Amino acid sequence: MAVYTHVSAEALTTFLARYDAGTLVSAKGIAEGVENSNYLVDTTTARYILTLYEKRVAEGDLPFFMDLLDHLAAHGLPVPPAIKDRQGATIQQLEERPACLIRFLSGVSLSNPTPTQARAAGEALAALHAAVADFEPQRLNSMGVDTWRPLYERCGESLDRIAVGFHADLGRALDAVVARWPGAGDIDRCVIHADLFPDNVLMLGDTITGLIDFYFACTDFRLYDLAIMHAAWSFDASSEDHDAAVGDALIAGYQSRFPFTDADRRHFDDLAAGACIRFTLSRAWDWINTPADAMVTRKDPLAFWRRLRVYDPDLASLLPTLS
Ligand SMILES: Nc1ncnc2c1ncn2[C@@H]1O[C@H](COP(=O)(O)OP(=O)(O)OP(=O)(O)O)[C@@H](O)[C@H]1O
Ligand SMILES: N[C@@H](CCO)C(=O)O
Description:
Layout: H1 9-16, E1 24-29, E2 37-43, E3 47-52, H2 62-74, E4 92-94, E5 97-103, H3 115-131, H4 145-155, H5 166-179, E6 189-192, E7 201-204, E8 207-211, E9 218-221, H6 222-233, H7 244-255, H8 262-289, H9 301-311, H10 313-318
Antiparallel strand pairs: 1-2, 2-3, 3-5, 4-5, 6-9, 7-8
Helix pairs in contact: 3-6, 3-7, 4-5, 4-8, 5-8, 6-7, 6-8, 8-9
This protein binds adenosine-5'-triphosphate and L-homoserine (HSE).
Pfam families: APH
Family: Belongs to the pseudomonas-type ThrB family.
Protein name: Homoserine kinase
């Protein structure tokens, strides 16, 4: 359960008094998520999400994220802007953490999306990329390709606590994937979501009602966003089997607005392999370092590691922990 920081009823009552948002009725920690502390807050007038930003979100980046959400909402995307207090501020301090009160969006996130739902999600990603064409702020990818080797080094030999031989194999895979990474001018760049997993897309039936969790949004390859989604969406949540129909539908939805160029086609699998490395590494780091008293369910680093087999079959035959 992702509640790293506990919020007292007294502190929350004082916090809410800054807003025209009613008075506190209830607040419950939200089980999903691993990055930030999230509460579902009901007041006498409405329901909100309260987010307290934890380790991976730098306070200095919050204005970028909030401006992006406002921009996307103004372009008709179903994203939840932060609520402004009576002074017009969205970013506050609560329990010594940066915190925002965020509009609650209805909908549920799916564990096993259908091809129809994946197609809608691909279209939504394309709408997001179209909407940022006139968004000027930029943000460096704090989990970008240049950060993977240092993160791997920081995990070190502890990686072998996750699987025997994992340290050596992940190091070799990292070298192979980084060597094939596209150069700066090879494919388009723009502001991307960078973490649009099924749990960050809210749906009612086949309709998308919310795109949430923009706290990794950054400037990077446009197609990397789709590759991240492909690696996150097109594998069965329990069996981990690759579901090509879901992956194809996702790509088809995206291509309805951004057809692949030849360069896109050439680089797609390499970008998806990079996504596997990025999420294997961040999950491995969390696995090794999550404090024992945190109310958080750690995510399996090996799930994304195994997905690498689909995007780079040659590596699968070389690395014992992948075969
Ligand atoms: N605006 C919103 N409206 C409705 N529910 C929301 C909203 N924001 C967050 N949630 C709920 O809270 C959960 C956790 O939020 P979020 O994904 O932002 O957390 P996180 O810790 O940053 O997660 P992640 O591990 O995906 O990075 C979501 O899965 C969703 O159920
Ligand atoms: N969506 C990520 C968490 C954010 O880095 C994961 O499932 O590992």
